[in-house]
Design brief:
Elements lengths: L5 H16 L6 H22 L7 H25 L5 H26 L7 H5 L4 H4 L9 H10 L4 H13 L2 H11 L2
Helix pairs in contact: 1-2, 2-7, 3-4, 7-9
Protein name: Aminopeptidase
GO molecular function, one term: aminopeptidase activity
Pfam families: Aminopep
């Protein structure tokens, strides 16, 4: 973290402060989507306050493509685990799935992203199932929180109040309310 730039540190602070502001016990998707939205919107406003241009569409698209790559790998692994294979064959196929993800990443990076290496450290570090788990959890409901923020005209206090109300709902009612907010 010591080598991170100001913006990366700001995004981390926005995300973690969101968790301190609000947390629903045993609802990871809700908590992480909420914190991810606060991180994204907080960063957008932080950039604007400093006269920096908004994040480019290409940066956002790259993040979405990377997430999709990881989620696709998770799905391939789920299908693999349903097969009646020996432990040795399973390990080999799992390693192949991770290598395919790395290869597909390098193709995206080199052919579509103009060599943008922002995900290199993650993709090249040791891989396991747990490392893939957060993907999808952190952004499942982000569009619902974006809608909610627009509904309160970008008023953070009104947004937090609305989030408090959502969080107080029973889990199924909360999910139904979030689905209703999805574009």
């Amino acid at each position: 973290m010591m080598g991170w730039g100001d913006e990366r540190l700001a995004t981390l602070i926005f995300h973690e402060l969101a968790h301190q502001r609000f947390y629903v016990k045993d609802d990871t998707e809700f908590n992480e989507s909420y914190a991810s939205f606060v991180e994204q919107e907080g960063t957008r406003q932080w950039r604007a306050a400093r006269g920096l241009p908004p994040e480019s569409v290409s940066q956002s698209a790259r993040r979405d493509q990377f997430t999709r790559l990881v989620l696709d790998t998770r799905e391939r692994l789920k299908a693999l685990y349903r097969q009646p294979l020996s432990a040795e064959v399973m390990r080999a196929r799992k390693a192949e799935a991770f290598e395919r993800m790395r290869r597909d990443y390098r193709t995206l990076r080199d052919e579509q992203w103009a060599g943008d290496k922002r995900f290199d450290a993650w993709i090249n570090s040791p891989m396991n199932n747990a490392k893939l788990l957060p993907f999808g959890l952190y952004d499942q409901w982000v569009p619902a929180f974006e809608t909610l923020f627009r509904q309160v005209n970008g008023d953070w206090q009104a947004f937090y109040h609305a989030v408090d109300k959502l969080g107080a709902m029973p889990v199924e009612a909360r999910k139904a309310a979030l689905r209703a907010l999805m574009p």
